[in-house]
Amino acid sequence: MAAMENTTTAASPPTVRADSYLTLNYRVSLAGSGEDVISTFGERPATLQLGVGQLAEPLERCLIGLGEGARARFELAPAQAFGERSPALVWKLARAAFDAQTGGDADYQPGDTVSIAGPGGGRCAGVLKALDERHALLDFNHPLAGQAIRFEVEILGVL
Q1: For residue range 81-92, what is the model confidence (pLDDT) as tens digits?
Q2: 80 alpha carbon, distance to own chain's centre
Q3: Which positions ≥6 away from 108 have C-beta within 8 Å?
Q4: From CA 108, how far away is CA 95, in angstroms rounded?
Q5: CA 68 distance to own-chain centroid
Q6: Is the distance from CB of 22 to CB of 154 less than 8 angstroms?
Q7: What pairing do the DSSP bridges indicate for beta strands 135-139 and 36-39?
Q8: How would DSSP label each residue in the chain?
Q9: What percent of the chain has a predicted confidence (pLDDT) above 90?
């Protein structure tokens, strides 16, 4: 990808680069139903820096090159957004292993986010899908995996 030179003049508003600080309004919604996942429109605008994990990388890519004052809407297929759902990221654990990972004393319910030890010693957060006396079913897919989304933005300021 070629580097973009940002030449700011009175006639040319600053444009978003991969490391820009931004103030913006944004909305992520499900493309099929239009249901909002998150929205700052009508609320306090977001201020963030690109490239440091404050906004999902697929959404950051949409912002590159937009000028201050721009409004844009992007329709992203699952592969362009948060990826397809992967059956390999749905784990069935024995209840004893689940209890050992979570301390066994919490009152977990389906839909709760649960953190367990992952490969390599790190922690993995997944959504508890089912829990009974024998097993726990955890889904480690991104919550928006497999979903087409709409991403709307209004760039209020670029630094």
Answers
A1: 999 999 999 999
A2: 12
A3: 102, 114, 128, 131, 136
A4: 12
A5: 23
A6: no
A7: unpaired
A8: -PPPP---BTTB--B--TT-EEEEEEEEEETTT--EEEE-TTSPPEEEETTTTSS-HHHHHHHTTPBTT-EEEEEE-GGGTT----GGGEEEEEHHHHHHHH-S-S---TT-EEEEE-GGG-EEEEEEEEE-SSEEEEE-S-TTTT--EEEEEEEEEE-
A9: 82
Q: What pLDDT tens digit does each residue of the chain (159 aa) get?
A: 444 455 444 668 899 999 999 999 999 999 989 999 999 999 999 999 999 999 999 999 999 999 999 999 999 999 999 999 999 999 999 999 999 998 877 799 999 999 998 878 888 899 999 999 999 999 999 999 999 999 999 999 999
Q: Which residues contact 83 (CB under 8 A, 6 or more apart)?
A: 141, 142, 145, 146
- Going from the N-terminus, what domains does the chain have, and what CATH number goes with each? 21-83+145-158 (3.10.50.40), 87-139 (2.40.10.330)
Which tokens in the block code for residue 50?
Answer: 């690109």
The closest alpha carbon to 81, from 152, 153, 1, 151, belongs to: 151
Length of the chain: 159
